[in-house]
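Hey, can you fold this one?
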Amino acid sequence: MNRPRVIATDLDGTLLASGGVLTERSRLALQAARAQSVAVLAVTARPPRVFDAWPDLAASLDAAICSNGAIVYSLSRRETETTRTLEPETAAAAAKALRAALPGVKAAVETGFEVVAEPGYRKVDSVGDRRVFVDAFDQIFTTAAQIVKLLVHDADGRADAMLAAARDIALPGVHVSHSGGEGLLEITAADVSKSTALAAWCAARGIDPAEVAAFGDMPNDVPMLRWAGRSFAVAGAHPEAVEAATDRCGSNDDDGVARAIETLLTGSQHRRRARERPPPHMTLGTNLRKILGHYRTNGQMRE
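Sure. Predicted structure:
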C-alpha cells in the first residue's frame, strides 16, 4: 500500500493506552499523518461526549465516527453531522428477545447525549458516564429522545458468551456486537456498523477502500477491518478481529498503532524517493555518454 489517504482507528484497546491515555508518541504519529494530508478518524463505540474529556485526542483527529457507526461527529465544530437511529419498536423487540435468551440482563439505550436505563442497569461508562433512570423497562423506549444503540448488560456475564447466544436467536432489524465491555452487548440498526459509516464518509470524498488503513481489536471492529484495503489487529486483539485484519501491529500499551503509522508514512516516502532516483545502471550510462560526447566534441576520441 502507498501512503493511505485515511487512517481509521478504534480507540479503547487500540489507539489509547490503558486508562484511556493518548501517549505522546501516538499524538505525534497522528500529527505527522495529518501533516502529510492523511485524514485521521476515530471510529469508536463511544458517544461524542467523551471528547469533552479527551481534548488532546479531539485536537489530533479530523472527525469521529461514534456509537459503532450511528453518529458521525465534527470535532472542529463540536456538532453531529449524521445520525442513524434505531426505531423504538425494533429496539424494544430486540431487548425483549435478549432478556428471554439471557436471563438477568438489564437494558438501556444510548441517545448520543445520555443513557436512558431501566432500574438495575449497572454498567458505568469509564468516560462521559451520563445515565438517566426510568421507572420501568418499557419506559426506556418512550422516554429516549432517539436511540442510536441498544445496550444489554449482565454485570456477571461474559460478552463473548452473550454474543454467541444473541447470534443464535432471531433479531430482525438489528446488528449485534460487542466492544470488549464486560457483560455488555451493543445493538445498532441492521445497516449500521463502523464499516458502513466509514465507507459513506470516504465515498463522499472520493476515497476508495484501498486507500484506507484501519486499526481495531474487538468484534465491533470486524466490519471495518474487512472493508479497509489494509487493516491491523493490535497485539492481544479478539480472535475475530485478528482473522478479519490483513496485518498485525503492537499492543495499545506499546504504541502499536503509532509504530504502524510511522512505518506507513516513512515507507511511502522511501518508495517515492526510489521512484524519483534513477537506477544505478542508468546513472552510469548517462555519465559515460556525457564523457564520450565531450571527447568527440574536442576531437580526442580514439578508436
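DSSP finds eleven helices and 14 strands in the chain. Let me know if you want another pass with a different chain boundary.
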